[in-house]
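Q: Can I see a sequence and its folded structure?
A: Here is a first one.
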Amino acid sequence: MSDIQYAATINAPDIEPRFRHPQIFEVFDGLNPGEVMELTNDHDPRPLHYQFMMEREGQFEWEYLEEGPTTWRVAISKR
């Protein structure tokens, strides 16, 4: 996905923690099928991935673009 055009980009540390996951899901839900959002975080967003698997099963693809040690980037595409 290196040449992909992202429909949205989110820098998670810029979002207040209590609003972080809801805002990420709101952006994801606004994507059209086939569109991709890029998420940047300061830690592995594995808990968010698990939440996606529970709440949006079969609706997304998750691809790590960068895996630490200080920055994690993930491409989340909508099926």
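Q: Show me another, different protein.
A: A second, unrelated one:
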Amino acid sequence: MECIFCKISKGEIKSRKIYENKNFFSIFDINPVSEGHSLVISKEHFENFLDLRNNLGDDLIECVKETISIIKKEKPFEGFNLVNNNSEVAGQIVKHFHLHIIPRRKGEKLKSHLF
């Protein structure tokens, strides 16, 4: 059985993609911890960061930076966190590589389920 992120990647589950390149795409998190909380997801199934091929680094960085730029225009913020949980003990729920972009605003308190 395929994971939910594979289904989104293949278009089997509709989603609003924020940004997309050859190897990654980004979407808004369905359970955000802040306004604009989004996910950068690998199109190919990799269980976690350690499974990513080394040659995907440029595409990953591009997708993260472009997503941040787009979100910042739509929902301004002063800073951000990048969070990547690897394995269940570290809080990884979906066993498909994804990176959380969490916009941060001055004075905002987060109740995070990510750590």
